[in-house]
Design goal:
The complex is a heterodimer of chains A (about 725) and B (about 220). With about 725 residues, chain A is mostly beta strands. Chain A contains no helices and 52 strands. In chain A, about 0% of the residues lie in helices and about 40% in strands. In chain A, a hairpin with a 5-residue loop joins β20 and β21. Chain A starts with about 30 loop residues before the first strand and ends with a strand. Helices cover about 5% and strands about 50% of the residues of chain B. Chain B is built from one helix and 16 strands. In chain B, the strands form three sheets. An eight-stranded mixed sheet of chain B has the order 7-6-1-4-12-9-14-15, with no helix packed on it. A four-stranded antiparallel sheet of chain B has the order 3-2-5-8, with no helix packed on it. The longest helix of chain B is centred in the N-terminal third of the chain and has 15 residues. Chain B is globular and about 40 Å long. Classes of the chains: A mainly beta (about 725), B mainly beta (about 220). Chains A and B meet through β5, β6, β27, β35 and β36 of A and β1, β2, β3, β5 and β6 of B.
Chain lengths: ~725, ~220
């Protein structure tokens, strides 16, 4: 059997969601092979890593060179470039791998990063803490088949990264903590090297990276990136930036091989079989292309999508391989096989572990010939009739090995084993799906007509509305949504909601207007349902707010009805004229607000008099530490008066500074509570207050929040350490 | 992402002219290599890309110092302000409680000047080009062209009122916001890569004025 098919062209771009596109590269030409690059964060060579809330690098490309000379010139003609996936391009109908990401910019299918008129160059901002212990697929490219020995990281030459230090790390050179600062490369490090004497960000690939002349094989390569934070301090000499000296390491497949399946110590491998009933077998053409998509289990988060290679053409059975990131302890994926003119075939909760082969060949994915139809319609507000914009629609299909169907009663979640086979979004007029193009049609334009007596389940979510689930069943040659007054082939429906209103107020008026975000979340959780951005004018202490929220019959992510909401309000302060993520005002909270009742006819209920008060300018503060017994995926939640405000990731086990967390928060005189989720351990902490006075830094400090003083500063100095909970 | 083309009423002629100017002059006012005629280029203009995990819903509040727009959309989306006024402030918020990546790229001329991103539940990714203050009043009239598809299509557009025309080139999906237009507004779109038929919505003050679907070129107009 074993027709070795394999993912060949990898593209990061898009894998068809909501009428989106699939960036792609052409099939490897003679003498070329395909490499797939993934990134992983590490902090082994960084100082004071726990003194930074966020470390992000702005990556432009990866370059490879066959030279064995580690000092090979940056102008050597043998360098090949794997650029940031622009996320735009064409499906050549040959074979491709794509991910669910899009980073804009121009099409890049060759070895450069040309910029089309009207489009800036592409780059990707990588949060190194977020990919510590869990690789992120970057891109793939067709490159000359040979052995590569050098790898080079190319960053944005103007702003190679952005870093948010905690308060303590801002001293003694000066500057404010909890502010996003640009990174600067160490004096003689450039990216890439444009002149003699400078240093590239390079590594030598141990034993070399062998790219075979095989158009059906993709070689996965993981690049571990350490930002190399220098002394963890601001440098006034480079204009209030944080100095970095990045270091990279290559993690190739191990053992070396040119025959799949490959094993990479930082990725997991899935090997499976797909069958078809199509008379002519598989057909990897534009008109009829078969795809295997891997999503994080239970979500529509596409990590990788692979089309079958031309070697499958005419066959009715083919083998596929997927190389996927996984966390410590493993990560579950849902797989979806689909094609033009075929049914879906799904498999739920396939476990993936790094460095391990998961072989699911004993239960092949089987697609059968079915006609495609379009699932289209409009999502509207039940009370105003206005369109609901940016709604997310997920079409659920049961994994027959787990559950017979996804049909669910009103007020409950679809059962386990239901896989998102297609996803789409509504536009500014509430209509779905967003269009695809002549090469990549929108997934909702390619929905196979379900067989008689079977149906799909459509689950729709939108900020401020109830999760809405109903059946979609075949009626003659069209699909009909099981929603009142809906006709076949046109799926128009409403989503239930209520309104929540109140006021948000400052303890004292400010001399300039202030923007405030008001958020509503399921009580006792960090599951936010909606937000409202309001502006408090100068010399005014309070303004009203109003927002749509799910009503009291909404089923939360936990599967239970959510009857109460928690509210919090956070000011969006400026620093040196730039808006910041971290607020310098105390966060106003209001817990246990009753959710509004469901609509009566076309009248939506209003829950009013929900007032958030007492916001005061106090400046920044921060807290960090290491939790006890950290596990992959753990978080630390910051809450105030039992209202969750912020959730940050914990560095997973097996990594440098495992268990560490870092949080920036306003220096509220009242205590916060820190909770280790999901373990449940918690502790109370009061954060240190900032120093009032002129800035110790080189740049005059206009402060994170004015507090009415005009030119005064509130510079955070203290960092509390709390751990072990 | 554009330069002045003066007031050109013949849409197709204008696009051809624009194309010639772009190919010969560098386009977007960033250069003027061949010094054609006496039409000055504008300063490099700012635009945005909302990128990350495809389909991630977001809300953006965008201000150019004179007008503010509230935008709801999903990744990816390019946002371009025609006739922009001053420094620009953006507050970009995820509208979903998950770890999906939402990233804002602030672009000036050909260069990404600022990256800002979040993976938090309903996380915020603020951005600005130049020092900014508070958000300006809501745009009035609020004129928008939403080039929904064909997705990834590279297109040229001439967007003009009765006093000025500006050309731009972008990829669909793209949202074009016209700041403070004078009199009638019209726009001509021309495909470059021919990936399918255009799908463009024209809205004024939140109301859908025209939803056009056509081949590789179309013109829309309104009198807001």
């Amino acid at each position: 059997m074993a027709i070795l098919l394999a993912p060949v062209l990898l593209i990061l771009g898009l894998a068809l969601s909501g009428g989106n596109q699939a960036a792609t590269a052409a099939a490897p030409a003679a003498g070329k092979g395909t490499v797939a690059i993934a990134f992983q964060g590490t902090f082994a060579n960084s100082q004071n890593v726990t003194s930074f809330q966020r470390v992000a690098l702005n990556v432009v490309s990866i370059r490879l060179n066959p030279s064995t000379d580690a000092d090979v010139s940056d102008f050597d003609s043998r360098w090949v470039t794997i650029p940031v996936p622009a996320g735009v391009g064409r499906n050549t109908g040959v074979i491709q791998i794509s991910t669910g990401n899009n980073f804009g910019g121009s099409i890049n299918t060759s070895s450069n990063n040309n910029v089309a008129i009207g489009t800036a160059n592409s780059e990707i901002q990588i949060d190194l803490k977020a990919i510590t212990g869990f690789a992120q697929i970057f891109n793939a490219a067709n490159i000359t088949a040979q052995t590569y020995n050098q790898a080079e990281l190319v960053l944005d030459s103007a702003t190679p990264g952005n870093i948010v230090p905690l308060c303590a790390s801002a001293l003694p050179v000066g500057g404010e903590g909890c502010i996003s600062y640009p990174a600067k490369l160490l004096a003689n490090t450039t990216t890439p090297t444009p002149s003699p004497g400078n240093i590239s960000i390079r590594t030598t690939i141990s034993n070399g990276l062998i790219i075979p002349k095989n158009t059906n094989v993709v070689i996965p390569l993981v690049i571990a990136i350490d930002p190399g934070i220098v002394a963890g301090q601001l440098s006034a000499s480079v204009g209030q930036a944080i100095v970095i000296n990045p270091v990279i390491a290559a993690i190739p497949i191990n053992p070396p091989s040119t025959t799949p399946p490959f094993l990479n110590p930082a990725l997991g491998t899935i090997q499976g079989i797909i069958n078809t009933t199509a008379a002519g077998g598989f057909s990897n053409t534009k008109a009829k292309v078969e795809t295997i998509t891997a999503e994080i289990s239970g979500t529509n988060n596409i990590i990788e999508s692979v089309t079958l290679p031309s070697t499958c053409n005419g066959k009715k059975t083919c083998t596929f391989y997927l190389y996927l990131p996984a966390g410590n302890g493993g990560t579950n994926y849902d797989l979806v096989a689909s094609g033009k003119g075929t049914s879906y075939a799904v498999r739920s909760k396939v476990p993936v572990n790094v460095g391990v082969l998961t072989n699911i060949s004993t239960t092949p994915l089987a697609i059968i010939t079915r006609p495609n139809v379009t699932l289209t319609g409009k999502v509207s507000d039940p009370c105003t009739g206005f369109p609901i914009q940016a709604a997310t629609l997920n079409l659920l299909v049961p994994d027959p090995l787990v559950v017979a169907d996804c049909t669910t009663a009103a007020g409950s979640l679809p059962p386990a084993g239901c896989v998102v086979a297609a996803t789409g979004s509504s536009d500014e007029a509430g209509k779905f799906p967003l269009p695809g193009n002549g090469f990549n049609e929108a997934p909702f334009d390619l929905v196979p007509l379900a067989a008689t007596k079977t149906s799909y389940e459509l689950m729709t979510t939108a900020a401020g509305y109830d999760r809405t689930v109903f059946e979609v069943e075949p009626v003659n040659s069209a699909l009909k949504c099981d929603f009142p007054n809906t006709k076949a082939a046109t799926c128009n429906f409403t989503m239930s909601r209520g309104t929540l209103s109140g006021t948000v107020s400052l303890s004292s008026a400010t001399t300039t207007p202030l923007s405030v975000l008001v958020a509503a979340e399921d009580t006792g959780t960090n599951n936010i349902e909606n937000l409202s951005l309001v502006t408090i004018p100068a010399n005014v202490t309070n303004v009203p707010f109003s927002m749509n929220v799910p009503d009291s019959e909404n089923v939360g992510t936990g599967g239970t009805v959510v009857t109460q909401l928690d509210l919090f309000a956070s000011a969006q302060d400026l620093f040196n004229g730039s808006p910041q993520v971290n607020s310098g005002h105390t966060i106003a909270v209001l817990g246990g607000v009753a959710a509004p009742a469901p609509p009566t006819g076309t009248t939506c209920a209003i829950a009013s008099n929900n007032d958030l008060s007492g916001m005061t300018c106090v400046g920044h503060s921060s807290v960090s530490g290491q939790v006890g017994n950290p596990d992959f995926g753990d978080t630390v939640v910051l809450s105030k008066s039992d209202v969750d405000i912020e959730s940050v990731p914990v560095i997973p086990p097996g990594q440098t500074a495992a268990g560490a967390y870092t949080i920036c928060a306003p220096a509220d005189p009242l205590p916060y509570t820190l909770t280790h989720e999901p373990a449940g351990g918690s502790t109370s902490v009061t954060l240190p207050t900032p120093v009032v006075g002129p800035s110790p830094g080189a740049t005059p400090c206009p402060s994170i929040c004015d507090a009415g003083q005009g030119t005064s500063c509130l510079t955070c100095l203290g960092e509390t350490g709390v751990g072990g909970f | 992402m554009w330069f002045n083309a003066r007031s050109i009423r013949g849409g197709i002629i204008a696009v051809i002219l624009c194309g010639l100017l772009m190919t010969s002059c560098g386009g977007f006012g960033s250069t003027n290599n061949t010094n054609p005629g006496s039409t000055p280029n504008t300063a490099p203009q700012s635009s945005f890309r909302v990128v990350g995990r495809i389909g991630t819903p977001f809300y953006a509040k965008i201000s150019d110092g004179r007008s503010t727009w509230d935008v709801y959309g999903v990744v990816p989306l390019s946002i371009i302000i025609v006739n922009s006024f001053a420094n620009i402030r953006v507050s970009l918020n995820k509208l979903v409680s998950d770890d999906s990546l939402l990233s804002l790229q602030v672009i000036n001329a050909f260069t990404v000047k600022q990256d800002s991103s979040t993976t938090d539940n309903f996380g915020v990714a603020p951005g600005n080009f130049g020092p900014v203050g508070n958000f300006a009043p809501a745009a009035n009239p609020d004129v928008r062209f939403f080039v929904k598809g064909p997705t990834t299509e590279l297109f040229d557009a001439l967007v003009e009122d009765t006093e000025e025309g500006q050309i731009l080139e972008a990829r669909a999906p793209a949202l074009i916001l016209f700041d403070t237009p004078v009199g009638r507004v019209d726009a001509t779109f021309s495909a470059v890569e021919f990936l399918g038929g255009f799908a463009v919505d024209l809205t004024v003050n939140g109301g859908l004025v025209e939803a056009a679907s056509a081949g590789t070129s179309l013109t829309m107009k309104t009198n807001p």
